[in-house]
Design goal:
Layout (H helix, E strand, L loop, with lengths): L9 H12 L8 H14 L4 H9 L3 H24 L18 H19 L8 H10 L2 H21 L9 H67 L4 H30 L3 H14 L3 E3 L11 H19 L3 E7 L2 E6 L4 H4 L5 H10 L3 E5 L7 E5 L3
Parallel strand pairs: 1-2
Antiparallel strand pairs: 2-3, 3-5, 4-5
């Protein structure tokens, strides 16, 4: 059996590696996963030419077998890259457990590659990389590493044992290991980045708590000390100078009132939310999380329900910073509405926030309407409208 001399040019392989470097397009589910799967299937189109040559040569059995194998291989690739779950390198809490359906898909891909290589020869050998790619993107490090080693050994044995495959470049056999190493480095780097972002958020919360503790201590520490001293003095004076004791107790009463007012002001400062203040906080929080922000100018805010809108902005930005892994966040304010959108992971990530129920109650109490949706481009849109 003679093999066509068609082989994929080197730029196709480099293009495949470029796509691997941007592995986020293969994230399971959603538009990115489908886009990555379609790119992978398009790369397989180079095998159409040698298959057509088989048909023209009236080698119907071989041509039919290669056609079916290529179609099945493309379908399995789409299922693996778009339909199955993979680990999320940006989420340090993401469990490193693969979707067990990956293994049957990998097992089904092996005979497809075998048929393509037997019928088309060296031209079909690079398709074995798809097995390694699926394993790397859909299995934990250990499982994907074992699959990559198996692919490397299989390719090397075929190149060394089968004379007709001796012309296959050796680097084809080594690419799975390279892909695995790059993927692991990328995952670890992404996890470290996400951990750093979460730690910055937690440090910001801790800093605010420390500020409150300092304020309360400064308010109560001095007042309670003076109250204690004056109370002891009044007790000693009550049998000696009743008028002075009364004056001291009046001072104690005033100090207590002043301290109570100070505590209320401090606590009120935590609970009082304004849109202008929350815009400043949102800008700072988003900048600390490396999220590009498109926020309105606080000096040009339209009249409206700024207290409710401040709560909406606070909760939405908190979810963006803590859960979305977004790169961009935009806020739009009108006299009767506020809208916060991001380009992150979508509604599943937004649901992780525990403050949405309270936000819904606040909106209902104000007679407004809360809408949480997923825009066409991904991410989350949080919108609140109130009666005009």
């Amino acid at each position: 059996m003679s093999f066509p001399t068609v082989s994929p040019p080197p730029d196709r392989v480099s293009g495949l590696l470029d796509r691997l470097a941007r592995a986020d397009v293969f994230a399971g589910g959603g538009r990115r996963g489908w886009f990555g799967a379609l790119l992978a299937v398009l790369w397989l189109a180079y095998l159409v030419t040698p298959i057509l040559q088989r048909w023209r040569q009236h080698d119907q059995p071989s041509a039919a077998a290669a056609t079916v194998a290529l179609a099945a291989y493309a379908a399995l690739t789409v299922v693996a890259l778009a339909g199955l779950r993979g680990t999320d390198p940006r989420d340090p809490a993401s469990p490193l457990v693969a979707d067990h359906r990956v293994w049957p898909v990998l097992a089904a891909m092996v005979p497809c590659v075998g048929v393509l290589v037997v019928v088309l020869g060296p031209a079909a050998v690079p398709t074995v990389l798809y097995i390694a790619i699926v394993a790397v993107l859909r299995l934990p490090a250990r499982g994907s590493g074992l699959v990559c080693v198996a692919v490397v050994l299989a390719v090397l044995l075929c190149v060394l044992i089968v004379p007709r495959l001796s012309g296959v470049p050796v680097y084809i056999a080594l690419l799975p290991v390279f892909i695995w190493v790059v993927r692991q480095i990328g995952q670890r780097g992404a996890r470290l980045t996400e951990l750093a972002r979460r730690q910055r958020s937690e440090l910001a919360v801790a800093e605010e708590r420390n500020r409150v503790a300092r304020d309360v201590h400064d308010i109560l520490g001095h007042s309670l000390t003076v109250i204690t001293v004056k109370t002891e003095l009044a007790q000693r004076l009550i049998d000696i100078d009743i008028e002075r004791a009364k004056a001291e107790m009046a001072d104690v009463e005033q100090l207590a009132r002043d301290a109570l007012t100070g505590v209320r002001d401090t606590v009120g400062g935590l609970r009082e939310v304004t849109l202008r203040g929350e815009l400043a906080n949102a800008r700072s929080a988003l900048a600390a999380a490396d999220i590009a922000a498109d926020l309105p100018d606080p000096a040009r805010l339209p009249a409206g329900n700024h207290e409710l809108f401040g709560w909406v902005l606070r909760e939405a930005v908190t979810n963006v910073v803590r859960h979305s892994a977004a790169r961009h966040c935009a806020v739009t304010v009108t006299p009767t509405s506020i809208e916060v959108t991001d380009d992150g992971r979508g509604l599943r990530a937004a649901a992780a926030g525990s403050g949405l129920a309270g936000l819904r109650e606040r909106t209902a109490a104000a007679g407004g309407k809360l809408t949480i949706s997923e825009p066409a481009g991904g991410g989350v849109r949080v919108a609140v409208t109130v009666p005009g």
